[in-house]
Amino acid sequence: MPVIDITKDIDTRTIIITAQFAAPVERVWAVYADPRQLEKVWGPPQYPATFVEHQLAPGGRMTYYMTSPEGERFGGWWEITEVDEPRSFSFRDGFADADLQPLLDMPVSENTFTFETADGGTRAVFTSVYATAEGLEQVLAMGVEEGATSAINQIDDYLAA
């Protein structure tokens, strides 16, 4: 399993997931840089993602929805703030309605995903910081830890296929 550590800190409003992949940094980066590849691993396996917009560049925007086994759609958006290919990117992440418009009453997080060579593969650190402790507690109650872990744990199998 690629996920090797999860740290949650309500006081700093932060969740950090660390993973180790059996592939070079450039290959892991390519998953995030290509919407068709990202769709294979974003979200839990039973909730496949479809990216409608995908621009991994500063000022770029991404919108997507995940489809439940019952056909219900759950939207999300990213606003890309920084890109240091292939080492890291940062973005704001939020929830969206069925038309992929931001849901203003839902938590928004500031995220940084970093990738570095380690142990013959890639060590990735996924850091999310919420504006409030209540926002972090809300997404934890919604299952973000389990969802993110199951999504990240798909990446090695996808890269090996």
From TrEMBL:
Naturally occurring in which organism (per UniProt): Ornithinimicrobium pratense
InterPro entries in the record: ASHA1/2-like_C, START-like_dom_sf
Stated family: Belongs to the AHA1 family.
Organism superkingdom: Bacteria
Residue ranges of every copy of the Activator of Hsp90 ATPase homologue 1/2-like C-terminal domain listed in the record: 22-159
Name the UniProt record assigns to this protein: SRPBCC domain-containing protein
A Pfam family matched in the record: AHSA1
